[in-house]
Amino acid sequence: MALMKELARSDFPSDFKFGVASSALQTESAPHEGGRGSSTWDYFIEDTPAVQFYHKYKDDVQCLKNMNIENYRFSIAWPRLIPTGKLSDGVNQTGIDFYNNLIDELVANGIEPFVTLFHFDLPSALQEEYHGLLSSNFVEDFTNYADLCFKTFGDRVKHWITINEPQVFAVYGYKMSLSIPDEPSTHPYIAAHNIILAHASAVKAYRDSHQPTQKGEIGISVSAQWFLPLGVMPADKHAAQRAWDFMTGWFLDPLVSGDYPFNMKAILRDRLPTFTEEQEEMVKGSFDFIGLNYYTSRYTKPLKLSSNDVPTGYENDQYVQTLTEKNGVPIGEQAGGFDAIFVYPEGLGEVLLHLKLAYNNPTIYITENGYPQKRNSSIAIETALQDDVRIEFLQNHLTYVRKALSEGVNLKGYFVWSLLDNMEMGSGYTIGFGLHYVDHDDDFKRHPKKSVSWLKNFITGSSSSSS
Ligand code: NOJ
Predict the structure, then answer these.
(1) What is the pTM of this model?
(2) Whose CA is nearest to atom 7 of ligand 1?
(3) Residue nearest to atom 6 of ligand 1 (CA)
(4) Which of 107, 156, 251, 321 is deepest in the core (most CB within 10 A)?
């Protein structure tokens, strides 16, 4: 990966927010402590030691301060606040105290909290009672939980993200604790529909009862990739549009225009739920900003399926084949520890411009962007700390952030994923996106990587060099 132009903080508007991001499930640990209820994704953390943010949050706030980071995105674990997921069953005061202490600690250190309300950890009780996201009951329970958060923390929290990566949760997440042998092909679309309604309902609660006095802002964090047509054929271009629609347009189109993308409606027909007029009104415009999680991009061409062997399901429904290379040349270098990420910073620029042009120039924060390194016992800590490749990754992506700003994209901030080498869904601790290495053999001690000094210098403006 070649290093593009070196950048400095002064290349960005003075009110542009630089931050670092994380999530509760991936960092807190302590799934059975402090009265927390279980979540549907807990089996990822049950047998592993994780990184103990629940106990070490004060040290971690110091890590942030040490980098001169002024914004921290973290998530609240719904089952830590409301163990059964239902407000009427009662709140867990120990959980409330934990997040109050964390927020106070951040604010006391001059760090603004960006709070995600739902980052994959659905209370198990809701899955057991009504299959979680597959039921419209989810909308009311999520709204009550969100409202509790606004009421309890909104005096200090001015940036709310309702839901993280709804596409990931709708496609992979809602069934985590269930085995569904012949999963109906409607399920992801029902789950997504309820996510959209829950998001919009929480935004309404915030706008009706809290925003006028608390004066914060609220949005959602979607995942996006840039899809490049493999060749010049219109079919490849149409495939790129369908891939976008099924990943990101699925959520942004309703939020901006009140309805699903045309391609989804045309392909899915009655497998796609519809919004009532009242719902449409609630959903349309239900954001103050769009959060964008960007890591990688793909080429596209149509997926050819003969009419007899078309198994319906989210993947095939799109009729898209995504590819990582063209004529044998990869779209970008494969990231060190993760075969899903091919480094393509230009894609971030394309996505940002597309958001501006196709979605009425919304306010945007990049809520995640980061680089995974391989982790295993044969890699010495000293080696893991030399993460020049992450510095290059961040610099190169920031080049496109700056380009987007010069093109009039209404971009207000950029968050690096992640503060620590934390638990990655599906990969555990075999990869690390962290700016800090966490030593599992030495009381989870945090070791700053080289990227920490780079980021600190960048934010402080004292140097733009990565060496
Ligand atoms: C997106 C998710 O929000 C986060 O939980 C995950 O760790 C990163 N991407 C990296 O895969």
Answers:
(1) 0.97
(2) 424
(3) 424
(4) 251
Domains detected in the chain:
9-230+243-296+340-459 (3.20.20.80)
pLDDT band at 315 (very low <50, low <70, confident <90, very high): confident
pLDDT digits (tens, 9 = 90+) for 354-375: 999 999 999 999 999 999 999 9
* Cα–Cα dist 52/37, whole Å: 17
Ligand 1 neighbourhood includes 451 CB (under 6 angstroms): no
Expressed in angstroms and rounded, the spacing between residue 340 Cα and the centre of ligand 1 is 12
Catalytically active residues, by annotation: 165, 368
Mapping DSSP to helix (H, G, I), strand (E, B) and coil, where does residue 74 land?
strand
| Burial class (CB within 10 angstroms; exposed 0-12, middle 13-18, buried 19+) of 376 | exposed
* Exposed e or buried b per residue across 47-60, where buried means at least 16 C-beta atoms within 10 angstroms of its C-beta: eeebbbbbebbeeb
Give the model confidence (pLDDT) of 133-155 as tens digits.
999 999 999 999 999 999 999 99
Pick from 444, 445, 448: which is nearest to 49 by CA?
444
CB 265 within 8 A of CB 249: no
